[in-house]
Automatic annotation (TrEMBL):
Gene3D superfamilies: Hexapeptide repeat proteins (2.160.10.10). CDD domains: LbH_MAT_like. PANTHER family: LIPOPOLYSACCHARIDE BIOSYNTHESIS O-ACETYL TRANSFERASE WBBJ-RELATED (PTHR23416:SF78), SIALIC ACID SYNTHASE-RELATED (PTHR23416). InterPro entries: Hexapeptide_acetyltransf, Trimer_LpxA-like_sf. GO terms for molecular function: acyltransferase activity. This is Acyltransferase. It comes from Spirosoma arboris. Keywords: Acyltransferase, Transferase. It comes from the Bacteria.
Length: 238
């Protein structure tokens, strides 16, 4: 019966939004506070999306934030410094406990896929043209850092040339990232994979369906997938 009630509410966005308002006690709280300096910035929030205690802090021009239907954002800060940047939150994506989407420079993009659930993460894109893409049906725990760059320059002592330019981060569909993880520049994590707790991922992995972990992360197990539900063996049921 409980599952049927949940399914009934999820199929009706207005009821879902009302239930969330009641659950969080946010009826009288602002949904998305806008602190914007600059021209031609656009924020589009679908009527069935739900934001509470969120802030859009923008300095620049021609920046875009899109939040699609059924998305649920709690305590998220959108921080943009620069021009022609884009943040896209797809249908039914969730930030449950907070987070920050941080963009600096020009023509950068953050994309969060459909039905992806995030407890609390800092997602930062820096340097022109950089992108972070998180696919569909992913699960990210808390205290997670995903970034395309190091924020500051590292130089070769002899040539004085910079050696740490930014690089895109791609997290494919159905990836589970456990708590206290860092996903650094240039990383590509494939479908159906798991990142173990307290891992620092510094390189890409070509295989799908692997558990990676450690500092720096390496493959711990192959040929796996995962499920949000706890599945008990018949013999273990009481």
């Amino acid at each position: 019966m409980k599952q049927r009630i949940k399914a009934f509410i999820k199929q009706r966005p207005i009821l879902l939004k009302l239930a969330l308002v009641i659950q969080t006690g946010s009826l009288l709280k602002p949904t998305l506070t806008k602190k914007i300096r600059g021209k031609q910035n656009k924020i589009t929030v679908d009527g069935s999306a739900f934001c509470v205690n969120c802030v859009a802090d923008i300095i620049g021009r021609y920046n875009t934030i899109i939040i699609e239907e059924g998305a649920r954002l709690n305590g998220v800060t959108f921080y943009i410094r620069g021009n022609s940047n884009r943040i896209f939150i797809a249908k039914q994506a969730q930030f449950k406990r907070g987070g920050s989407l941080w963009v600096e420079d020009e023509r950068c993009e953050i994309r969060i896929g459909e039905r992806t659930e995030i407890e609390d993460a800092h997602i930062a894109v820096t340097e022109p043209g950089s992108t972070i893409q998180i696919g569909k049906d992913c699960l990210l725990a808390y205290d997670i850092d995903v970034r395309t760059g190091d924020s500051h320059s590292i130089l070769d002592a002899v040539t004085q040339q910079r050696i740490n330019y930014a690089n895109d981060v791609i997290i494919d569909d159905h990836v589970w990232i456990a708590a206290h993880c860092s996903i650094l520049k240039g990383v590509h994590i494939r479908n159906d994979s798991i990142v173990a707790t307290r891992s620092v991922v510094t390189k890409s992995f070509d295989q799908e369906g692997v558990i990676i972990g450690g500092n720096p992360a390496k493959i711990l197990r192959e040929h796996i997938t995962w499920n949000r539900d706890r599945i008990y063996e018949p013999s273990a049921q009481v």
